[in-house]
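Obj: model holo form, ligand = NAP.
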Amino acid sequence: MAEIQTIRAGLVGITGYAGMELARLLAGHPNMRLVMACSRAEAGRRLGEYYPFLEKLPGADVVISVFDAEAAVKQCDVVFLAVPAGTAMKMTPALVEGGVRVVDFSADFRLHDVHVYEEWYRLPHEAPALLPEAVYGLPELNANSVRRARLVANPGCYPTSIILGLYAPLMGGLIEPDGIIADSKSGATGAGRKPGTATLFSEVADTFRAYGLPRHRHTPEIEQEVSAIAGQEVRLSFTPHLVPMNRGILSTIYTRLKKPGTTVEEVYEVCRETWKDSPWVRVLAPGRLPETRFVRGSMFCDIGLVADPRTGRLIILSVIDNLCRGAAGQALANANLMCGMPVDAGLSDSAPLV
Ligand SMILES: NC(=O)c1ccc[n+]([C@@H]2O[C@H](COP(=O)([O-])OP(=O)(O)OC[C@H]3O[C@@H](n4cnc5c(N)ncnc54)[C@H](OP(=O)(O)O)[C@@H]3O)[C@@H](O)[C@H]2O)c1
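Output (holo structure tokens):
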């Protein structure tokens, strides 16, 4: 059997929550090593010193540096951009042109239509020429395109939970594509690690609030992907909430059944069949509901189903971990595919329960 070469990985945004999670995952990867880690504020520090959890693990001796595209092209086979939207698109062209595979965590390459990006992110796009080739990296749906891609747009965390939740009932023709309401709750790490009043302990603990209404930036991304699945243009309502927990997303998705008398067992059969070969999508038996703690730190997406004949609704509950499945783990799955490895290399751990 041919020996698998070790893939050299660069990570820009090492000090953020998504970067921290990816450093954790890379330390346990059998064939990928962190060789470059970038931050402007912490440049010069040894990673094992900055992140004590990494000491004595692979990656600990990497010294944090300021991003330099030329150095990245020399040192890396794949670069993860765990930086804010608007920053990634400045870094990507030189990397792609230099032959490095890029997985971008931000929204910069998720939206196919540059005008939609500019309207919702209120930024001029600086690399629109790369938009047509960027692949939306949801591995369950787009694995073949991801394998061939030079640039993968890693999906947003809320969109991941909502698209995976809706996929099987929509594809199975069980629900109407219009009138969908996605009501989502996220832990505070979803807002990133950059300090701000809104994420202070006293502002998050012991309270519960919605935000970003009615134009949260994930809305056009969800609509773009759900429209592609439904085969028609879909408009939906998306309401995100912040809950006092560190990590995890629970999306409660209200839909209308095409046939109001459809039973939950019928929907369950369609969903179970759709996801039977997926390593990570788990459809819960009727009567069971998902919880964030059962997917913590993992790639799992747990889906619960409730059919309500009184209202003719199918309520879908979809749960993921925002940092692993919704960011770093999904990015690693995409990089695995781009580098010719099994999609779940370094990602097979189950979730810690408490
Ligand atoms: N948190 C989540 O749950 C989540 C989920 C899905 C996707 N994402 C996406 O992942 C990306 C990172 O999110 P995060 O939550 O990890 O953010 P974060 O905690 O705020 O970290 C951002 C990182 O990017 C670096 N950075 C910021 N501005 C930069 C610039 N102009 N040039 C170079 N580096 C810069 C920061 O380091 P320095 O300032 O020291 O350079 C830091 O390491 C974002 O695009 C976010 O939307 C996050």
